[in-house]
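PT: before anyone asks, these are the final sequences, not the draft ones from last week. 1072 residues across everything. Please model them as a single complex and drop the result in this thread when it's through.
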Amino acid sequence: MSLRTQRPALRRALVALAALPLLATAACGGSGTEDGASGGQGACEKSEGKVELTYWSWIPGVEKAVAEWNRQNPDIQVSVKSTPNGNAGTYQNMSNALKAGNAPDLGQIEYDSLASFRLQEGLTDIASCAGVKEAEDDFVKWTWSQVTFGSGGEDGVWAVPQDTGPMALFYRKDLFEKHGISVPKTWEEYYEAAKKLKKADSKAYMTHFSQTDPNWFSGLLWQKGASMFGQDGDTWKVDVDSPAAGEVADYWQKMIDEKLVATDLQGFSPALYKAWNQGEVATWVSAAWGYSTIRDNAKATSDKWGVAPMPQWSAGDNAAGNWGGSTTAVLGKSEHPYEAAQFALWLNTDPKALEILNREGGLYPAATEGLELEALKQPVEFYDGQKIFDVFADSSKNVTTDWTFGPTMTDTYRFLGDGISGALGGKGTLGDALTQADAKTVESLEKQSLEVAK
Amino acid sequence: MSLLTDTAGAHAPAPASKTASRGPRESRLSVAVATGFLAVIAVYMLLPVFWLIVSATKSQGDLVDTFGLWFSDMHLIDNLRALFAKQDGVFVPWLLNSLLYAGAGAAVGTLLSAMAGYALAKYRFRGREFLFSVVLGGVLVPATALALPLFLLFAKVGATNTFWAVFLPSIVSPFGVYLSRIFAAASVPDELLEAARIDGSGELRTFFTMAVRLMSPAMVTIFLFQFVVIWNNFLLPLVMLQDDRLYPVTLGLFTWQSQVSRDPSLQILSLTGSLVSVVPIVITFLVLQRYWKAGLAAGAVKS
Amino acid sequence: MTVDRTAAAAAPPVKNTAAPAAPRRRRNWAPAFFLLPFFIPFILFTLVPVGYAFYQSLLKTERTGGTFGRKTTVFAGFEQYKEVLGDPEFLGSVGRVVLFGLVQIPLMLLLALTLALLLDSTVARLKRFFRIAYFVPYGIPGVIAALMWAFLYDPRLSPVVELLDQVGSAPDFLGSSMMLWSIGNIVTWTYTGYNMLIIYAALQAVPGDIYEAARMDGASEAKIAWRIKIPILRPALMLTGVFSIIGTLQLFTEPQVLRSISTSVTSTYTPNLAAYSLASSDNYSEAAAMSVTLALATFVLSFGFLKFTGRKAES
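LR: through. Structure below.
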């Protein structure tokens, strides 16, 4: 333990350390297996006899859908465990469990985390499982491109799409009416509306700009077609600070600078809910699942909200972004990929399952057939009887398929979040945040020893 | 309640001289100033607790819409009922788990610490100071730095997601060994040990019959501290456990809190749950404090 | 500077009270019997993980083939340490907690000392109640304590801010200039009672007649506190000081919770938060290197503190 030890001892230690790399490389060379990427195109065969599967998910009420499956399939029994949201600990737990070799057969994974899990060799390629490739047309297009990593199935199918978060504009009809603001169709109009609102009521904000939701911001980039990543052969392209992304950043920077958006409200915080209830915040550009967030947390504003399509960058367009949504993935070490894939397909395409997931968990389905659910065609009471899901159904169809999440998305979000936090605190701009996030993301890919195109 | 009142809070010896000295010397003013200062600090310490109590009685809506430091409509019973019913009543196993991890873990840990501390104080053998140094080094290792490597090691033997994965690491208390050594050195006289040996008592018997009794105040102290440390430990169960039936209450409440955006009713439940989970800690403290001051006294190192 | 030095500094009585030389030949097995039950789990659950973390910190990931590739782990020497020590954000986070410690630790210990002295003096009343009141915060799990304070800091939710605004204006507890001290307040709130109890208990160990004698000589309570009690308390204060240093370097829960409501806390706000962020993006090796660096920093600062206070005691 003594640090000021005699020199000779130190030298001996250094010699020993210098020898270690040789040993280590020797050891690694010997132990490596030579079969391609994990999962690969291995056979996906039916198991003998009764199979028991485990499944982790955080959809409220998912156990009811699972019970229905178990009733129909006595030989493939699924037990579901309700976990915290992915980023609130479940992903960490899943990757820990993958390391420990006791991961569940199936897990809920959001689109933006699929690549990370594939990178950790945590996913099973289910392309060769019966019915999987055929299911392509059952799902909204962009979701299939996400689970196949844009390769149309050439590079495997790594999960089954579950739900999506097509984005639209939630706005306070009463406040807009009161101050004579019309529903903005373009971002330019949105900015003008924000100014008008501020003028009419100095305490009101157009929306809140949250540091804790970098995935919300990437939903805005998605609409603009500013994909953060790309793949070019064997190399990754990092495009976090593309010119298109810069435009989005500059736009919101202007909103922040002119104090048109609240910068001290974090997403999903009680403070935000209070501000909603008190009419301090007039709009929220959010995903389909956001309807229940407002409904459940801003009860005092019943009948006061409306939903309109997302504002556009140029008039007449109808582009939409996506925020959130998840997949059901067969995890890396499952012994029953066939049965697991069957369950995943059923859970996300069977009309009864879709109905249960929508009713209990408020999921907005990724299956095209799911968009036709009876429940999604009804007027929604809280929204003054507006058929809000018609708006989201359009939005869902208009989400661009050309969007790639990176394999170290947790890092990218973190860098983006840190940068946004700086911009909101008056240190730097959102543009700087993108530049920093870009540089650091390149670094983090390189740390994972991935090739990055310069 | 007698527990509360029995524990006179001052120097164990000579209560008589104490009352005598409390005579005329202190002016009313200094008593008022001192007590006033203590009261102000007590308000500071208890204000958040009071807020927690008030919040636990509110409905979800009132939580953000009414003044936080006073009661509105009484919903405590509803909240408690919802708390114990949520997810098939998982809150009860959480509480029991915590009691088991913390209670049994602290009990075993205290015994092991007392034995080691006793040996380090009362026997002379080669490497004794070295061992003690290693133990002290152990006090300084950040517990957070241990959680991940521990997880990976438990994974190697396939023991993650078990009761033992949280329990076993919890029984190690280097700080307990440190306190035990100091206390054993101070409170177990060598003459007594010699006398026991001459009487033919075995080493074990001497320890368990005599030394333990003499060291019991220190052991209660170690138990209390270790109990609180395990009860509050959050990172280790977070990485080790996947089965929510094995969760301790802190992790369970954190899980709920992190799901609030999907299920807003969890907000009030996690607050109510927090309040309920503090109760066992306070009871433990009240029960143990009568033993406890003397124990700490020796532990905290007289010069 | 060896570990032995701490043993001597933190535990002065041991040397004096250690058993006098006595015939012990027959009892060679006894110490082993008493020590093993502790040392076996200690080795397994503390020393081995530390060694393992160190081993991990010497590795790095390599991949071959494709945009995802296949992962292998290779030995990388001290490469990760170079990475960690060259990371301005990590260094910034260390600087931040050091600043935090320099301000918060003395304040907290001073408060704890004052409270302990008052509770031990003859001037205060209701001592039993106060003792429990001060200890309660320590019994509240860190996550929950941070959540409660988060509510009390939030300008839109806090009744405290509401009250302060009525009598003047409340500070922006969650702003970037206040954040570190808002965290400091949570830490102070949680640990003052704990430290007070350690100090208070040390006072209890002093025979009452020492004070009695001083009183006979006409010394005031304040003078007794300053001249007699505080010198007696030196070892206890050193102990609480070391624990506070360790706790400060390990700050994690409070900033982690406050992150969800404030823009002022980044993912690398404290060293531990930075290490956790790395681990959750599957970069175990660098996270391990960070933890080891942090543990070393803890050793250095704790020993430095003990040495510093020890030297002052001698002079």
